[in-house]
Each structure stands twice: as C-alpha cells, then as structure tokens.
Design brief:
alpha/beta, Nucleotidyltransferase, domain 5, binds zinc ion
Length: 453
C-alpha cells in the first residue's frame, strides 16, 4: 500500500474551528504545498517533454540532471524523485503526468488544461485560451519589431560628452548592440552579421567591434542604465497591469567557485550563478522591477524595493508571493501603496503579530479558497522566469560579476520588449517611450552617467 494519500479522497473536517489553531495551520500548510506542487506539475506538463514507456513515464528533472521515473498507477502512485521518496507526498512529477494523461485523452492535440481541485467542494480554475492568431503574428514579426522598439528605447539615452582622442561609440549604439546581441543568444563574433543588417536598416550609426560590445557589458556604469531601461520598457503596459507577483531564480554561469570542505577534507566546486529577484505584471508577464543581490541575500528583504519601484509607476491592486517573502514589514509595505498582499504563510506562523498581518492570516486560514484564488496569480512570475530562460537561456556567457549582472539585465529587457510586441498584437497597444522626458526627472536619471564609459 502506498504511503501517498491521494488528494481527492481526503476529507476535511466540517469546520476548521473544531481543531486547534496549530492543527488547523498544519493542515492548511500541507494543502498549500500540494497546491503549489500541482501548479508546478502543470507547468512541467506544458513546457517539458514527458515520455511514456509502457506503464511508466519519464519526466525530466527541473534541475537539469537526468529524468525521474513516474508510475501513475492509481493504487500506488510512485516517483523516483527525492521529494516523493523521502516524504511520500504527491510530487510535481506525478501531477505533471496526470496533466499529460488528461491532455492525451483530448486526442485532437488541443492543449486545454482544465484543473479541478477537490478539497471540500469543487473549484474549477479558469481555462486560459491562447489567442493563436495574435500569438502567431507576434512571433513571426518579433525580430523586426524588436529592433524598431529597441531603437526607440535607446534614443531616450542622453549621449555622453565627447572625449579627447579615440572617438567613442555613442551610448545608444553601444546599448542597442549589447541588447541585440543578448537577444540573438549568439557569441559576439557570430552575431556581427546581424549587427551589420541592423545598420543597413538605420538602427545603428556605426557597427561596433565585437570586443567593444563585450567591454561595454563588463562596465559597471552600464548597470543603472540597463535597470532604468527595464522600468521604461514596462511603462506602456501601465494601464493593463494592476496585479503583480514576486519571485527569485538563478542563472548559471560557466565560472566555477571552489572551496575546501574542512569536514571531509576535500575541495568542492560549483558553478557560479546570479540570483535575480523580480516583480512582474500577471497579465502580460512584463517585468516592472529587478534586484540582483548577493546569492545568499534573503528574499524577504528584497521585496520592499521591488514593490516601491513598481508602485512609482503603476497603480497596484494585489501583490502575490510565496512564503519566502512572508514578513510583517512586507505586508505593511504593500499596503502602504494601497494594494493587498497575498503572501503564503509558513507553518510556524500565527496571526499573533496583529494588524494587517493578522487580518490576512485569518483570511488565509478561514477563506482559503478565496485566498488561493488570488494567490494562484503568483504562478505567472514562474512563467515569466520560464519565458526568459526558454528564449534567452538560463545560462550566462559572461565571466565577471559585473558582466554577468549586465547580461541578465539584458535578458530581462529583451523579455520585456517581447511582452510589448505580444501586447501590440493581442491588446492593440502602440508602445511609446520617454513620454515624460524633457523634465528634470529625465536629466537627473542620467546625470550620474556623465562619468563616462
Ligand atoms: Zn517526483
């Protein structure tokens, strides 16, 4: 007999109030974990290749190493992943296979996934249908639209004063080339013919040498410019986005970090990686704020900056985040902008802190389905990371810390421009940039770049 108790057959007590608060919270916590696994499973089913081999399925590991064997036998479902083997709970791979099997039953290859979760009653989640004509149009015109939008965006950069001696590459040319290179996902040398094409189309004054592009990417002065451009590129979607989600994820590099493990007396090594925290709009996946900190920086402390940056330009209604971001201060920061925080609580949490925290904790505890209805928007930030990594790779070519940060910021801006292109076809939005330029706001933003590149 399996240790796994299928979710559907589990019955909850008629009222949570008959249990002690501790029992009640533990129960909610397990439910929430299962819910999150289900969401992840749905994403795996949508983005990965699941192979059927007789009675079992092979599901690729999300960390990129090997595959897990999943047996969806309803009597004794099993998966070879550590999560299932150590905890005996239904893991994301089992959920993924369940979705894949439902999808196969359609037969016509249609991709509609209708999710039904049975807890005490049946909630039917909305089914999102892709607007295929708009999607096809956006994808087939993406590269040309990308260059035009990128050109417009770079025109807002104030040129640096001319230097003596060797003529300097203009800032707009340099930034355009850096972004377009990251968009192409090619090495700097192989990318040069794309750049010459861009010059023929009038998007570039001069074609920079490939080493200049790499040098620019390695320049710390570029970092604030790239961040400012991410914000600017999100503004055309100001009227569309009101609900936001926060999460973090890593981009790997080819550089190794080595250290001595004194306990076992061996040298260990690991790929260096960049940890990115971002906030995105849940409708279009546009990134409205990014923070890149040290790898071990706590998630909780990053949230206020992301919220404040976004709130400076957008009218916020909701912010959803997982339990890593749960803190009294984060609830207050979100509320200070007139928005409602939907942040999952940890099993050790109680409503004792009072104020908004307590209010949201009770909402979470006693109106769970309503709470989850808002909280599930958080999965859009995971999709955002998937989109960025699928299109522009989850790997960074650069070797230095500065270049690695700049390259990741470039990937995010490329993603934002793709979101704009999608919005042009799907929502009929005509993006314009630098609408409030000419004010001192603009000149102060770039005043500190005058140090020169
Ligand atoms: Zn598994």
């Amino acid at each position: 007999m399996s240790r796994l108790s299928p979710r559907r057959s589990r019955t909850l007590p008629p009222s949570h109030t008959q249990r002690s608060p501790r029992e009640c919270t533990n129960l909610l916590w397990t439910d929430l974990e299962l819910y999150e696994r289900e969401q992840r499973g749905m994403r795996i089913a949508a983005t990965c290749k699941l192979t059927r081999k007789g009675q079992v399925w092979l599901v690729p590991s999300q960390s990129g190493h090997g595959r897990y064997t999943v047996s969806p036998d309803p009597e004794a479902p099993h998966c070879s992943c550590p999560d299932h083997e150590t905890r005996g709970l239904k893991c994301k791979h089992l959920f993924a296979v369940e979705f894949a099997m439902k999808r196969e039953q359609h037969g016509d290859g249609s991709m509609t996934v209708t999710q039904t979760v049975t807890v005490t009653e049946t909630i039917k989640k909305p089914t999102y249908l892709q607007d295929w004509p708009a999607y096809n149009a956006a994808q087939t015109h993406e590269k040309e639209k990308f260059q035009a939008l990128l050109y417009d965006l770079c025109q807002g950069l104030e040129e640096l004063p001319p230097s003596k001696g060797h003529p300097r590459l203009s800032l707009s040319d340099a930034v355009f080339s850096a972004y377009f290179k990251v968009y192409s996902t090619m090495s700097a040398r192989r990318f040069m013919s794309d750049l010459r094409d861009a010059q023929v189309k009038g998007y570039l004054h001069t074609v920079p040498h490939f080493n200049s592009i790499l040098n620019y990417l390695d320049n710390p002065i570029l970092t604030p410019i790239l961040r400012a451009l991410i914000t600017e590129s999100s503004l055309p979607l100001k009227t569309v986005e009101a609900d936001f989600a926060v999460d973090s994820s890593g981009f790997t590099t080819s550089r190794f970090i080595r250290w001595v493990d004194h306990k076992y007396g061996v040298v260990r090594q690991q790929h260096a990686w960049v940890k990115v925290h971002l906030m995105c709009g849940v409708k279009t996946n546009v990134v409205t704020a990014v923070e890149i900190r040290e790898k071990d920086a706590s998630d909780t402390k990053v949230l206020p900056d992301l919220v404040n940056t976004t709130a400076a330009h957008f009218d916020m209604r909701e912010v959803s985040a997982d339990k890593g971001y749960s803190s009294v201060n984060n609830h207050e920061v979100i509320a200070s902008h007139g928005a409602t925080p939907y942040i999952a609580f940890k099993s050790i949490h109680s409503g004792a802190a009072g104020g908004l925290w307590e209010k949201m904790f009770h909402y979470f505890a006693f109106n769970r389905q309503e709470f989850l209805g808002h909280y599930h928007k958080r999965s859009n930030v995971e999709s955002t990371f998937c989109m960025i990594k699928a299109k522009f790779r989850d790997h960074v070519r650069s070797k230095t810390d500065v270049a690695m940060t700049n390259e990741v910021l470039c990937k995010i801006l490329c993603h934002n421009i793709c979101c704009l292109i999608q919005a042009m076809y799907e929502l009929g939005i005509e993006p314009t940039f630098w609408e409030n330029r000419g004010s001192e706001h603009q000149s102060s933003r770039f005043a500190h770049f005058q140090g020169g590149l």
